[in-house]
């Protein structure tokens, strides 16, 4: 049994199938990548898995339990965390507070204690601050902890979202283009970070355009085109798959690529 | 400095400063109104500034608090206890009504809350047997002077009311600051900035909104009880639309993202009309002009704008 199982998941917008009956599974301790051209339905697939959209068809299972239709905050309780392609940070908070918010499910103080500023509430906040600082350290943003999040660069915000997801203590992590807006050095750092996260036993599902990164760190790759899964396999299988090349380059480009190969 | 201590010291300092400089009972009376408004507007800051929800119906909750202390003593409940009953009733009503209407946002929510306020106003106007109808009702005498006399402090009633409202406002401000820096506060502010991200982190967005709505309703009700007791008289107009608008205006003018905005907004919009009475005819023009000019020049409200300015000056000072 895989930690995350997706079965025939689908959704239509105005008659167009943005995600069409997609199935795959993702194992703990591995990086499973979703690739495909722009508009293929990758982000929509994440929105279905994480409960942002309600699926028209199909099922999502976590550790064998059917969680289809559960709202995002319940899925978070089950250990799912994610980042967003079109950043969803908290711009009015500092970088540190952004990450501390990720500790929400660990915090056990009640509303009354929070209002009265009781020791139980202050203790929770101190604990969250410690966790958030080490997460910021881990993504290389510790020196920016006190800055308003709105002052961070795009690449930094991408990593801020990773830190915020990490402090939840997730067992399933969905990353939507985490290296977008990063330079070569930063991309390499994100790459190492994702590797390390997976090595800790987290089930990582990655959407990424940087093919070198995908080929380097994925155990398993799922290819989407126009909402459908067109291929699936190990990196070396995907690299040589005709349908994948065609989807990326168009039929004409594929023919050229074949000719170049021959 | 610890934000709780800072809030406590700043608010207390303002209460004491007022008491030291006020030359007459009239000033103490206006001062009480400022602190009563600070209480209800602090509730608006929790709702609007922390979570980002607009309510145009909070005068309804205010009136629930006001009528609780007006009606319940007739049934043998002491005024002090009636205040707590009113606050609890407002909080419960907010939780029950909040579930369905807080699914709305923006101006849809504004209109729904407006309707809620109107309903409460209507009940207070129609149920004359209980509320005295449109003429309102007398609120049984309650004088905090006696409380202060118990601990050996002698003062006039207006002064006693000033100190009582000032102390309750201080508590209200401190609680709101505690909340803002707590786990719940971070969850509320997360909903303000991105409800999608908040829910992905496990925040139950619907619940967070209801909680903030109920807290702000309790603040409004407590303020309402204090006003009714201080005035000794109450009419359904306390539940009126203009009063709801006034609360939101005070919060936005002062700066809805911070409790200090609640204090400054209440201070200016309570004191200014009093100051302007000597230009009677032009009062509304000046008041309107001040509001328009402030919002154009300082969109986020006075306190955040002045905070930014101070920050910029400090940065410039350092770079020289
Ligand atoms: N909420 C929505 N309403 C309508 N169309 C949508 C919505 N979300 C996604 N789509 C459509 O679904 C398709 C897939 O988009 P997306 O998942 O963002 O692609 P990708 O992430 O692979 O680039 C696009 O055609 C997009 O316009
Ligand atoms: Mg996308």
3D structure, described in words:
The complex is a heterodimer of chains A (262) and B (320). Chain A folds into two domains: 1-79 and 171-262, Rossmann fold; 91-169, no CATH class. Chain A is built from ten helices and ten strands. In chain A, α3 packs across α5, α3 (95-101) runs parallel beside α6 and α5 packs across α6. In chain A, a hairpin with a 2-residue loop joins β1 and β2 (16-26). Chain A has 262 residues and is α/β, with parallel strands linked by helices. Chain B contains 15 helices and two strands. In chain B, α3 (58-71) packs antiparallel against α4 and α3 (58-71) runs parallel beside α5. Chain B is globular. Chain B starts with a helix and ends with a helix. The interface between A and B is medium-sized, with 38 and 30 residues. Bound molecules: adenosine-5'-diphosphate and magnesium ion (MG). Magnesium ion binds next to α1 of chain A.
Question: Keywords for this structure?
Answer:
heterodimer; A: 262 residues; Rossmann fold; 2 domains; six-stranded mixed sheet; 10 helices; 10 strands; 41% helix; B: 320 residues; mainly alpha; two-stranded antiparallel ribbon; globular; binds adenosine-5'-diphosphate; binds magnesium ion; nucleotide-binding (chain A); L-phenylalanine transmembrane transporter activity (chain A)
Work out the helix count of chain A.
Answer: 10
Termini of chain A, distance in Å? 41 Å
- How many strands in all of chain A? 10
Largest interface: A-B, 38 and 30 residues
- What is the percentage of strand-forming residues of chain B? under 5%
- CATH top level of the largest domain in chain A is Alpha Beta
Question: What integer value in Å does the Rg of chain B equal?
Answer: 20 Å
Large-scale geometry of chain A: globular
Give the biggest beta sheet of chain B: 2 strands, antiparallel
- Residues in β-strands, percent of chain A: 15-25%
pLDDT < 50 stretches of chain B: none
Which oligomeric form is depicted?
heterodimer
Distance between the termini of chain B: 26 Å
Question: What topology, given as strand order, has the largest sheet of chain B?
Answer: 1-2
Shape category of chain B: globular
């Amino acid at each position: 049994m895989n930690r995350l199982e997706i079965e025939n998941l689908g959704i239509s917008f105005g008659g167009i199938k943005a995600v069409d009956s997609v199935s795959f599974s993702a194992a703990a301790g591995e990086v499973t990548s979703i690739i495909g051209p722009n508009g293929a339905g990758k982000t929509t697939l994440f929105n279905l898995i994480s409960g942002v959209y309600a699926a028209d068809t199909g099922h999502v299972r976590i550790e064998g339990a059917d969680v289809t239709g559960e709202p995002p905050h319940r899925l978070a309780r089950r250990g799912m965390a994610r980042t967003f392609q079109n950043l969803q940070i908290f711009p009015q908070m500092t970088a540190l507070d952004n990450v501390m918010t990720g500790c929400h499910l660990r915090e056990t103080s009640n509303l009354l204690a929070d209002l009265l500023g009781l020791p139980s509430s202050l203790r929770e906040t101190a604990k969250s601050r410690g966790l958030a600082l080490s997460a910021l350290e881990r993504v290389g943003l510790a020196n920016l902890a006190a800055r308003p999040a709105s002052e961070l660069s795009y690449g930094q915000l991408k990593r801020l979202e990773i830190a915020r997801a990490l402090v939840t203590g997730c067992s399933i992590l969905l990353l939507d283009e985490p290296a977008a807006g990063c330079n070569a050095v930063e991309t390499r750092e994100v790459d190492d970070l994702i590797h390390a996260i997976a090595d800790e036993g987290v089930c990582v599902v990655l959407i990424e355009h940087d093919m070198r990164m995908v080929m380097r760190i994925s155990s398993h790759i799922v290819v989407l085109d126009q909402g459908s899964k067109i291929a699936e396999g190990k990196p070396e299988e995907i690299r040589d798959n005709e349908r994948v090349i065609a989807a990326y380059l168009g039929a004409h480009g594929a023919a050229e690529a074949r000719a170049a190969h021959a | 400095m610890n934000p709780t201590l800072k809030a406590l010291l700043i608010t207390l300092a303002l209460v004491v400063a007022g008491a030291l400089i006020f030359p007459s009972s009239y000033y103490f009376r206006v001062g009480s109104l400022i602190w009563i408004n600070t209480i209800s507007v602090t509730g608006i800051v929790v709702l609007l500034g922390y979570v980002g929800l607009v309510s145009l119906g909070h005068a309804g909750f205010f009136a629930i608090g006001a009528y609780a202390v007006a009606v319940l003593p007739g049934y043998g409940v002491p005024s002090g206890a009636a205040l707590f009953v009113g606050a609890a009733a407002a909080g419960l009503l907010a939780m029950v009504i909040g579930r369905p209407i807080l699914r709305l946002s923006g101006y849809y929510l504004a209109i729904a809350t407006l309707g809620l306020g109107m309903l409460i106003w209507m009940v207070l106007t129609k149920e004359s047997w209980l509320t005295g109808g449109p003429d309102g009702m007398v609120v049984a005498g309650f004088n905090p002077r006696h409380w202060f006399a118990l601990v050996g402090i002698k003062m006039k009633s207006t002064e006693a009311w000033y100190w009582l409202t000032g102390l309750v406002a201080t508590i209200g401000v401190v609680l709101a600051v505690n909340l803002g820096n707590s786990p719940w506060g971070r969850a509320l502010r997360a909903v303000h900035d991105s409800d999608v991200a908040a829910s992905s982190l496990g925040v139950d967005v619907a619940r967070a909104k209801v909680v903030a709505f109920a807290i702000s309703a309790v603040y409004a009700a407590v303020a309402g009880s204090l006003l009714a007791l201080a005035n000794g008289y109450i009419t359904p107009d306390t539940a009126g639309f203009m009063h709801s608008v006034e609360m939101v205006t005070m919060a936005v003018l002062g700066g809805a993202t911070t409790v200090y905005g609640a204090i400054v907004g209440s201070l200016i919009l309570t004191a200014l009309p009093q100051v302007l009475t000597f230009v009677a005819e032009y009062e509304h023009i000046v008041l309107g002009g001040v509001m328009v000019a402030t919002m154009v020049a300082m969109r986020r409200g006075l306190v955040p704008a002045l905070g930014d300015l101070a920050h910029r000056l400090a940065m410039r000072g350092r770079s020289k």
